[in-house]
Amino acid sequence: MERSDRELVRESRAGNAEAFRELVERYQRKVAAVALGMVHNREDALELTQETFVKAFENLGKFKGESSLYTWLYRIVVNLGIDFRRRERRHGTVSIEERAEAGAAELADDSVGAPLGDPFRELRSREVGARVTDAINELTPDHKAVILLREVEGLSYDEISRVMQCSKGTVMSRLHYARKKLQSKLRDCL
Q: From residue 61, how far is each of 14, 15, 65, 73, 156 by CA, in Å?
């Protein structure tokens, strides 16, 4: 029987390292996906993921349980990602294959049903993925975070509001602006 997050947090606070390891295993992939979406460099994303769980462990006593653990971890990784981007002022590199994995499959619907091995469709899918990634990278850190949390991770407006520590209206406004910006940059792909 799977233990709840609440139980694992309680046990982790009491010093049970195995309980915290279970929490890390439960959320590691999702946290890493958000980190990679924010910094677009595998090594930096892994560092942010590790830093997220270190901060979570150090601050577990401060976790009040008012939001889900999932939301709390996302708040940490998004804040670290925003800080990283502001501090580094650099754009990481990701291979075209990684870009295609990250976005092209969902966004290039014309590849669905294409015969396997069709090089033209595969190339088009990769090109679209690269264009989407580039367009997302041009967004401000706050707008990028909102897009990733909503469109990639599927969080609700309320969850994003808690993660970003802003009002639901601000989330909606940022999301609207980010979508419009992406739409104008990707008009010829749509």
A: 10, 11, 10, 14, 26
